[in-house]
Write a structure and sequence with these properties.
By secondary structure, the protein is α+β, with helices and mostly antiparallel strands. The protein has twelve helices and seven strands. The strands form two sheets. Strands 1, 2, 3, 4 and 5 form a five-stranded antiparallel beta sheet that branches. It has a two-stranded antiparallel sheet with strand order 6-7. The mean pLDDT is 94.
Length: 406
């Protein structure tokens, strides 16, 4: 997920923990405790992304693909990150140091907030098509939620409004409210959101505000959490339906092929429109196929032609449920030979989930068609004679099935 979402989730976590504790006996330590918990939640929910400093260890794009969402995004390595975070708070913040020394309840609350903040970062990252491998080194396979877009306005709106209403400064409160109200409107005007999505976001914001006014801060925060959990649940059901429709379409298009994977990426704040990719294998022919497309679950209401073009919709298209945008077939033998002979391609395969090969370049078409290079595009042919990349983390191969390993 984006770091605005991580930050809002961390701040909400700090507020929830603070309000779950018994009131502090003195005003000044109470203010310090709240600030420390907010800072701990904020930092813990962003700390794992410090792995971006490791990306220069490998030439692009491998540095980003291999080391981002890498070791810092695992449960095992969350523990030293928590120790580092708490150590920095203790050393650099005199108020936090006094609080942690003399208040046992606050110590436990800060430790719990730091641990849960790390887990929430991994959990939110696991919701989208990019993936995580949180159980490394015990299980280094990538896990994919395929549920929400990597920047999700529902999270911004729910947590943004809930937190804005808790701001002590009137100016900050209104600034936050205006920002989180204006951003969805701007995204809609720019073509990233449908008008129906904007209406849904307005409903979420209204529910959070209403709950806050009637039940106070805890009710507003609870409504924000409920809205986000409910949205993820809707996305899970919609994704299940989407996969069923895509499998049915593939059964007609390629009846001899076995479906290996159907990565899904929803459109922001829109459970009806989905971008998807497919990976299939035809063992008899010795070939594999990758495809990308766009799906609408309710084409009578929102055909693929109405899905926002900024995220892969098909403007001007017919009122169909599915629009196929790219297809490539390749030789399994050639694919496996390339993996064995080209160490750069082999390293890239520790990330790639939907590999497409064109003109000596490899692209993961989850992030765009191969004729439009993106952050995943590797010029494997040009690097064939270069020294092998190192260090390469031992993540599982998403397409071990194409390599004949499972």
């Amino acid at each position: 997920m984006d770091n605005i979402t991580h930050s809002l989730v961390g701040l909400a976590l700090g507020e929830v923990v603070e309000r779950a504790l018994p009131p502090a006996p003195d005003t000044t330590p109470g203010r310090t405790r709240r600030r420390v918990l907010l800072a701990t939640g904020l930092l813990a929910s962003n700390f794992p992304d410090l792995d971006l400093v490791l990306t220069p260890l490998l030439p692009a794009p491998l540095g980003y693909l291999i080391h981002h969402r890498g070791h810092t995004h695992t449960l095992l390595y969350a523990l030293p990150q928590v120790a580092l975070l708490l150590g920095l708070l203790f050393l650099l913040w005199p108020g936090a140091r006094r609080l942690l020394r003399h208040d046992r309840t606050a110590r436990r609350a800060v430790l719990g907030t730091a641990l849960l903040g790390m887990v929430l970062h991994l959990s939110f990252d696991a919701l989208n098509v990019y993936g995580v491998h949180p159980f490394h080194p015990f299980d280094s396979r990538w896990l994919y939620g395929d549920l929400v877009f990597i920047i999700e306005p529902v999270f911004w709106t729910a947590f943004g409004f809930a937190l804005a209403l808790l701001a002590h400064s009137r100016a900050l409160r209104w600034l936050m409210l205006v920002f989180f109200a204006a951003m969805p409107a701007l995204f809609t005007w720019l073509g990233f959101l449908q008008w129906g999505s904007l209406a849904g976001l307005a409903a979420v914001a209204s529910a959070v505000v209403l709950c806050h006014r009637r039940g106070g801060a805890r009710a507003g925060l609870a409504m924000a959490v409920l809205a986000c959990v409910g949205f993820v649940g809707v996305q899970a059901l919609a994704g299940h339906l989407a996969r069923g429709e895509i499998r049915a379409a593939l059964a007609q298009m390629a009846p001899a092929s076995r479906v290996l994977d159907i990565p899904l990426s929803s459109f922001p704040a829109n459970p009806l429109c989905w971008s998807f990719a497919t990976v299939t294998e035809d063992a008899r022919a010795g070939t594999y196929g990758v495809r990308i497309g766009v799906l609408s679950l309710v084409p009578g209401l929102t055909p693929v032609s109405a899905c926002p073009a900024r995220f892969g919709g098909e403007p001007g298209g017919r009122a169909h449920a599915i629009a196929w945008k790219f297809e490539q077939r390749g030789s399994l033998a050639a694919f496996r030979s390339l993996q064995q002979s080209n160490c750069h391609f082999d390293a890239w395969l520790r990330f790639a989930r939907v590999p497409a090969l064109i003109g000596g370049n490899a692209t993961d078409v989850r992030f765009g068609p191969p004729d439009q290079p993106n952050f995943s595009t590797l010029p494997y042919a040009r690097r064939a004679s270069d020294p092998c990349p190192w260090p390469v983390a031992a993540w599982g191969y998403p397409r071990a099935d194409l390599l004949g390993w499972k």
